[in-house]
Amino acid sequence: MDDRSARRLLIGVGNRERGDDAVGPVVCDLVRECALPDTDVLVFEGSVVDLPVRWHPTDHVTIIDAAAPDGRPGHVAVIDALAHRLEPPTSVSTHTIDVGAAIELARAIDRMPATLTIIGIEGARFEHGSALSPEVQHAAGRVVTRLCRRPPPG
Amino acid sequence: MTHRTVELNVPTLTRVEGEGAMHVTVRDGVVADVQLEIYEPPRFFEAFLRGRSHSEPVDITARICGICPVAYQMSACHAIESIAGVHPGGAIRELRRLLYCGEWIESHVLHIAFLHAPDFVGVDSSFEIARLRPDLMAAVLHLKKTGNRIMEVVGGRPIHPVNVRLGGFYRAPTRAELDSLTSDLEQAHAGALALLKWAATFEFPSIPDRLAEHTEYVSLRHGSEYPFNEGRIVSNRGLDIDAAEFGERLHEYQVKHSTALHAVLDGHSGRGRHFQTGPLARWMNNADVVPDTIRAVADELGVAAVETNPFRSILVRGLEVLWAVEEAHRTVATYVAPGTAALEVPAVAGVGHGCTEAPRGMLYHRYEVDAAGLITDAVIVPPTSQNQDAIEADLRDFVASHLDLDDRTLGRRCEQVIRNYDPCISCATHFLRFTIDRADDG
User: Fold this and answer.
1) How much of chain B, in percent, has pLDDT values that exceed 70?
2) DSSP-derived 3-state class of residue A133
């Protein structure tokens, strides 16, 4: 993209085969159908460690990921990751480099985008082969509506 | 003399893949016992495979490991294709090599930069390295991205590829799709070189007298190319066999302290020739066939054709990353899409063997298939299983030669000894306790 300053980048993170963990990729699928201008959509079903090199410093990035169950399935939390430092991991293995760790890695190497918003959708079930729970499916629809209504950056 | 027991819990030991503990017992200044205890539960993959179609191990065994699924897919393909006498060549063979390049880049870079390098730098995690060397870490992340992209383009997705099937692929990538990798590969080459040169600045501990006498280095050898999928199984001591003979020469045995089988060559009940597999063995048996570009870098950095210090395995991994980037670039540049994406692999009754080079070393598969195309028996021998004896030997010799270190330092160094092998113990939990029980003069 030539005019990087105007790009919006949506990143969905999750495993499509594990119930509500699929909500990030599902939201991305639906947003793609909106054909938003100046918007790229990426889905991460595996390691997210290279997230910091997937965006440009002038990008406006939104990450959609499932959040751990906490009694409110479908609850949507929005975090400004530029304003709030995430819990830094004390150590890592290749299995524990999650979105938060990848973002802190980006911060450490000074590769944060222009804006970085995390949308966490609280899940209810994560079993192999299960579908999205009704609560998360409903929440995904609300998030898609919000993302598709938002005017392009820049 | 009193008997002192010290137990250290070391949080950085998350930097291994899997669940285990290490116990060291020292008496009167002599290492009495060393145990790498692996208590991961059995996963029953070999049993799952019985009764399944001969076409299914390619996908089922890929699920054994999220770090090296391609190795499982390739070993399964080669084993089962060999029963039918099918040997894909040309563009299918090239695509398989390209896919393997992606896995090596991904796996090795993660191990070098995230799991192993902190030991040498003296920090607890790669996040501290990122703060110290942001440009280098950016290059590392780009390398990782490049490996992921190769896996996506050829394998369908970056983890547990879905495009691999017996005889080849469900769909061959287009010329344009492979071209999309070129700019990433060009950038990745500079990153791989920077990572390797950085690793070459590390101070490498040593294990006096280790390995010169007691270990055999076993790997594939193809003869004209650095090995991925093909070659005979060779060693620095004259072993030279076909994959079909490996099961007869390899003896797996149980020890009480590990749920993972140990292995020796030409032995029984744990007695036999001790060996190791992995980067040091591959390099030792194949350094003469690497391209001149790789040889020149090795020479510049002082990596000899024979390296036996396990701490220097990080350098060989770095060379293998550089080689994989170059090999991927060559494959992309010369790619011509195959006329057919996969050869037919009919169900044929028989026994097939496959051995390929996973990032951590040789991965052996054996399948017995009946006339209906159903699997009646399966054997899978991963590299970490083969390396357990070598890891324990390294620990024993390292502790014996470094008893002057305090328990905390010794514990951390022992973890580093284990990480030299990039062990993939399991994909479940990540905790390892270190205990040392040594004689105390106090």
Assistant:
1) 90
2) coil
